[in-house]
Specification:
Shape: globular
Oligomer: single chain
Radius of gyration: 16 Å
Number of helices: 5
Helix content: 25-40%
Structural class: alpha+beta
Strand content: 25-35%
Largest sheet: 6 strands, antiparallel
Order of helices and strands: HHHHHEEEEEEEEE
Length: about 180
């Protein structure tokens, strides 16, 4: 587990305690069983990126605080240079790079996702809002509500993120830009 990911559960617990919210109430508020939430907060279970956004919303903070321990600073424009996004590996073979982590009060979340077909695909997820995926390189298999779509470089898909969905590389590595609107 990388250094950034290792501190996320600690940050969640600290913010929850500062706000005087019990772990049981937190789990209820974000729609998780207490057992699952407790494993997330103890670092015993990887927290899906969509759950991080839900937790950040409940804690009235930006997901950047959970990821980096710092507040987003920019309010007019935030430049993210190549390779400088906040990197998170949430699942084996599934790496996220937050591209707008330093912009305050953002209403969309652009992420560059790198996939490795030699690793097992992550479980399907669902979350609020809508999602846009644009393939930057390679081929990506995207499943949305049991329908599979194979997308190549330059292809894109837009879908209702409430539907179970997931992405995996077809051969080798692939990269796509995802924009999530909560």
């Amino acid at each position: 587990m990388n250094e950034i990911v290792a501190h996320i559960p600690e940050r969640i617990k600290e913010l929850r305690e500062i706000l005087e919210v019990s772990a049981l109430d937190m789990a209820k508020d974000i729609g998780l069983s207490f057992e699952t939430y407790n494993k997330y907060e103890k670092g015993e279970l990887d927290i899906p990126i969509s759950v991080l956004y839900t937790i950040a919303g409940r804690l009235n903070t930006d997901v950047t605080v959970l990821l980096t321990g710092e507040e987003a600073r920019m309010d007019s424009a935030a430049v993210c240079r190549k390779g400088k996004g906040v990197m998170i590996e949430r699942y084996p073979g599934y790496e996220f790079s937050s591209l707008a982590y330093n912009f305050k009060h953002r209403t969309i979340e652009p992420l560059l996702v790198t996939l490795d077909s030699s690793k097992p695909p992550a479980a399907l997820v669902s979350h609020s809002g809508q999602e846009f995926n644009f393939v930057v390189e390679g081929q990506v298999k995207i499943v949305v509500a049991k329908t599979e779509h194979i997308l190549s470089q330059g292809d894109s898909i837009y879908f209702d993120a409430h539907l179970p969905h997931g992405q995996s590389a077809v051969n080798g590595t692939a990269q796509f830009l995802t924009i999530i609107q909560e």
